[in-house]
Write a structure and sequence with these properties.
This protein is mainly α. 63% of the residues lie in helices and 0% in strands.
């Protein structure tokens, strides 16, 4: 984790409002994204990347669920946090875009490196996508440092709730294509 006040405060926010399995998912998403930096072949801002990664699922929590898709609710909350904590507006906008696009299949990997890395990191953690691009030792170390804590069951419950309440959400087509089963079958 980058050692900045912004990162520490964002982690405290997520820890306050998210279940432990979701906090660890966000931390693993960051670590896995860093481990796959070779996929973007561009420099990236580690602080901005951490901020987007740690806050990318705020929209799944009751406090930040305002009725929009969880990606947009989370993106708004993350940007507001960044502005309130005086992160420069351009970086705050990038954090917003990271959260809003973290699961836009076919798009995210073509955007800014921070967005692509969050897409890769979260995808690796949720559904074991791209895990072959992470060294086995790194994968084991990250899973040891930030255990899953019944993540599969927790994430399936959170996503199922979102789809039930918001049938037009961004995740609806992925879930219709069997994404929840992909989560269940994740090997770790």
């Amino acid at each position: 984790m980058p050692d900045s006040q912004h990162c520490q405060k964002a982690l405290a926010l997520v820890t306050q409002y998210s279940p432990d399995h979701l906090v660890n998912h966000c931390l693993r998403s960051y670590a896995f994204g860093v481990a796959m930096a070779h996929k973007v072949k561009q420099p990236f801002d580690k602080e901005v990347f951490f901020l987007g990664a740690i806050m990318h699922d705020l929209g799944l929590t009751p406090t930040f669920d305002t009725g929009d898709t969880f990606e947009i609710d989370g993106a708004k909350a993350a940007r507001s946090f960044c502005i309130e904590h005086q992160l420069n507006p351009e970086k705050a906008d990038l954090v917003h875009e990271m959260v809003a696009h973290h699961n836009t299949v076919g798009v995210a990997h073509k955007l800014d490196p921070e967005i692509a890395l969050l897409h890769y990191g979260a995808g690796a953690d949720v559904a074991a996508l791209w895990v072959r691009d992470i060294h086995k030792k790194t994968l084991a170390e990250v899973l040891s440092e930030y255990p899953r804590l019944d993540f599969k069951e927790g994430m399936i419950k959170l996503l199922s709730d979102q789809i039930e309440r918001k049938p037009n959400s961004y995740m609806a087509p992925l879930i219709a294509l069997g994404f929840l089963k992909k989560i269940e079958k994740t090997s770790f």
